[in-house]
Amino acid sequence: MHISLDGFVAGPNGEMGWIKVDEQIFDHVGKRISQTDTALYGRVTYQMMESYWPAAGKKASASKHDIEHSSWYNKVRKVVLSKTMKDGLTNTKIISDNLPDRINEVKQSGNSEILLFGSPTAAHSLIQQNLIDGYWLFVNPIILGQGIPLFEDVKEKIKLNLLNTRQFTSGVTELNYTVDK
Amino acid sequence: MTDPFKLTIHMVSSLDGYIAKKDNSVSWFETTDNYERGVVEQDPGEFLKKIDSYVMGSRTYEHAVELSKSYGWVYGDVPTIVVTHRDLPIERPNIELYSGDLSKLVTERLKPNYRNVWLVGGASLTKDFIRLHLADEIRQTILPILLGSGTAFYDQVGIEQTLHLKDVKAYKSGMVELCYEIKK
């Protein structure tokens, strides 16, 4: 998740132009997600991904990152939190109710960690139901001033353990935590 | 050569950006995390010696006075300016009250007298200083915890402000200190 220093994942209207990603960050992120067989999205983010990534690697202008990520995206098992979408898509599972049980089934059926990409609304539900095991954050060097927060209505205190931090030349800081359960 | 004037916003917060719990308790500052690769907390003495003035809001001051009954006054003999419209009791000779224009506070009161000023809270004063472009640096220490509720450090600042990352330090306690220059 990319966040601003004041804890927003997007501007008030979903703006994400402030997020700094470059080759250095793409490479770093790419290493971890290549080990991941399950990607989790909210409906809005999933639809954004779906409209771009399946074909992004085949474009003439595709960068190394586009090709790698497109190929990973097409392979990875996708889980989407949505009340309106229906099951039946290839390699894609829809979760529409009973979040704790469904998520635990997904956790047990995979061979790797499950990564949630963007998807602030899905993140809020998962955090509130204590279904998140770790936070992988990229803190961008900006105060947005207003927007959609990553953390919302966290019900009670949650202790974390710092796994590692890393500074990127763009001024982005990676913070990696596990939830102390 | 004297250092240029610098006003630093300093705050210790939870990962979700809270600087105080609703009941003002401070026990959550004690982390149980152990980050092997972290650096050992330095003796803050040398570092803190370089700060020649503190600025804080009235509720931060009242909270510090309350805490001083159990833990002592943490800001020592360093001149401390409390920004308030209220006539608060002053319990120490190095504390003065200031009410009025914040730009004048910086240009007329702080700049001629001090080099290394720390603004230590609270949220609304921090917001004013960012909005008025009066601060030069943000030094935010993030504790490995989500609090869920309390006083937010960034209380909907309202303006976008670009920062320049200067330094990151991770401590053995799992605290991460991020230091940014505020681009003007």
Q: How would you sum up this structure in a few lines?
A:
The complex is a heterodimer of chains A (181) and B (184). With 181 residues, chain A is an alpha/beta fold.
Notes on the protein architecture:
The complex is a heterodimer of chains A (181) and B (184). In chain A, strands 1-7-11-10 form a four-stranded mixed β-sheet, with no helix packed on it. Chain A has six helices and eleven strands. Chain A has helices at 23-33, 43-50, 53-56, 64-75, 99-109, 120-128, and strands at residues 2-4, 8-10, 38-42, 77-81, 92-95, 114-116, 134-140, 142-143, 148-149, 158-167, 173-179. In chain A, helix 1 (23-33) packs parallel to helix 4. Chain A has a single domain, classed as Dihydrofolate Reductase, subunit A (3-Layer(aba) Sandwich), CATH 3.40.430.10. Chain B has 184 residues and is of the alpha/beta class. Chain B has a single domain (6-182), classed as 3-Layer(aba) Sandwich (Dihydrofolate Reductase, subunit A). Chain B is built from four helices and eleven strands; from the N terminus they run ββαβαββαβαβββββ. In chain B, a hairpin with a 5-residue loop joins strand 10 (161-170) and strand 11 (176-182). In chain B, 35% of the residues are buried. The mean pLDDT of chain B is 91. At the A-B interface, strand 8, strand 10 and strand 11 of A face strand 7, strand 8, strand 10 and strand 11 of B. Strand 10 of chain A pairs antiparallel with strand 8 of chain B, so a sheet runs across the interface.
